[in-house]
Amino acid sequence: MQRLLEELSVDDLTPLNIEIWSLSKSLASEIQAREPRETDTKQEDRVLIGMMTVLKALLQKYPARKAEVGARLVPYLLNDCLFQIPQAVGAGAGPLRKPLCKSPASRGAALRLLAVLSRDCLINLSTVLAYIKEFAGQASWRTNKTSDWSITHLDDEKSSTGFVGIKNLGCICYMISLFQQLHMVPGFR
User: Fold this and answer.
1) What is the pLDDT of residues 112-169, one digit of tens each?
2) Which of these, 79, 73, 57, 52, lies nearest to 123 by C-alpha position?
3) Sign (positive/negative) of CA torsion 7, 10, 12, 13?
4) Which residues have C-beta within 8 Å of that of residue 20, sequence separation ≥ 6?
5) Cα separations (Å) of 189 from 51, 166, 181, 184?
């Protein structure tokens, strides 16, 4: 279904009488109602991955629906699918509530869906940025131990290619990779 949605134009889909809006809402609701099926990173919930992939393809074809679908789905993807810290549910402290997406495939599908929901939709993008800002403001995920950052004495050595690179302070790896890519463009350099 994803390939069909990607290959057909919006005009081609119109005669098929597909209720795109109800399908989008239904997929978003099913994703949110889905119970965790992945017990570890090796198990894949193929149904969940499929629902996220089809919803992503629908939203790429019909971007006007992103704000409506994303109003409830973006916080759910962030909090429950991707970055949920296991914690006890309710006052009874029963079983831990775990993130829905544990496998690389399901996490990738959730991240791609989140990217499509955030692209060209300021409401969804601001929700993601607010989450990142709140997360970055908490110092609990950072430590001062060298072993936690995998920093070794080999990091100070010069590469066999002759390039030195930029020293990673532990939180700027994406910026460093961008600088390295831009440096390799002769016109930009």
Assistant:
1) 999 999 999 999 999 999 988 887 766 555 555 555 555 444 444 556 666 666 666 6
2) 73
3) positive
4) 13, 58, 61, 62, 65
5) 43, 16, 10, 7
